[in-house]
């Protein structure tokens, strides 16, 4: 799969870039995002207390421990089975620097957390969601490497769908646990997709040069 040759990928990157710029400018200027209140109210009305443990579990896939454990598995697989040292380097740099990039944007935008009762501990600013952004980077890269190793379309689709579901649920969990606005999650997805696309493009270019 050559993502940098995909026209659909460029369409999504363009849309993600426009979305990111809009949200950053609006929030930096202190403007509210129209859909935040409606979506947050929807989740507060449909989610019951009994489901909070489920969302606590799901959000763990995007926290530091969850990201770290998953990253170690991917690195071990790329190292032991694939001997793909270029892939390891790209994976580590994309996730690690992506996390720092997320923190930098948080400080630059300076958006406080929602004024709801937070159901998990949070210490950083709100936009963009680190769980959504770094989670997307990690699981999208993982899916990318796995899909490249599969020979059947069915297997590729299964991996892709599982990755999308995990990424989506992580974002939903942050809204459900009342620690992020929906626009924080959307912004995290948009920035995470752009970031991942750039690093996959670098990886494919390096692999192409290496194979010549």
Concise account of the structure shown:
By secondary structure, this protein is mainly α. 76% of the residues lie in helices and 0% in strands. It is built from 8 helices and no strands.
Report on this model:
This protein has helices at 7-28, 34-46, 52-59, 64-82, 85-109, 130-149, 153-176, 182-211. It is globular, with a radius of gyration of 18 Å. Helix content is 76%, strand content 0%. The chain contains 8 helices and no strands.
Query: Alpha-carbon distance between the termini?
Result: 18 Å
Average pLDDT:
91
- Total strands: the figure is 0
Helix-strand sequence: HHHHHHHH
Please outline the major beta sheet. none
Shape: globular
> What fraction of residues sit in β-strands?
under 5%
Write the layout of secondary structure elements.
Elements: H1 7-28, H2 34-46, H3 52-59, H4 64-82, H5 85-109, H6 130-149, H7 153-176, H8 182-211
For this entry, give a set of tags.
single chain, 212 residues, mainly alpha, 8 helices
């Amino acid at each position: 799969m050559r993502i940098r040759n995909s026209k659909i990928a460029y369409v999504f990157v363009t849309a993600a870039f426009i979305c990111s710029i809009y949200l950053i400018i609006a929030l930096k200027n202190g403007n509210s995002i129209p859909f935040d209140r409606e979506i947050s109210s929807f989740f507060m009305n449909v989610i019951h207390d009994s489901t909070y443990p489920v969302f606590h579990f799901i959000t763990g896939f995007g926290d530091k421990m969850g990201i770290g454990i998953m990253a170690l598995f991917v690195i071990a697989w790329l190292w032991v089975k694939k001997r793909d040292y270029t892939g390891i380097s790209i994976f580590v740099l994309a996730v690690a620097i992506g996390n720092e990039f997320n923190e930098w944007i948080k400080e630059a935008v300076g958006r406080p957390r929602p004024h709801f009762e937070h159901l998990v501990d949070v210490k950083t600013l709100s936009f963009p969601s680190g769980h959504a952004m770094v989670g997307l980077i990690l699981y999208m890269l993982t899916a990318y490497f796995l899909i490249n190793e599969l020979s059947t379309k069915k297997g590729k689709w299964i991996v892709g769908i599982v990755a999308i579901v995990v990424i989506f649920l992580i974002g939903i969990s942050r809204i459900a646990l009342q620690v992020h606005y929906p626009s924080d999650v959307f912004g995290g997805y948009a920035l995470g997709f752009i970031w991942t696309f750039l690093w996959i493009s670098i990886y494919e270019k390096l692999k192409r040069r290496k194979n010549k």
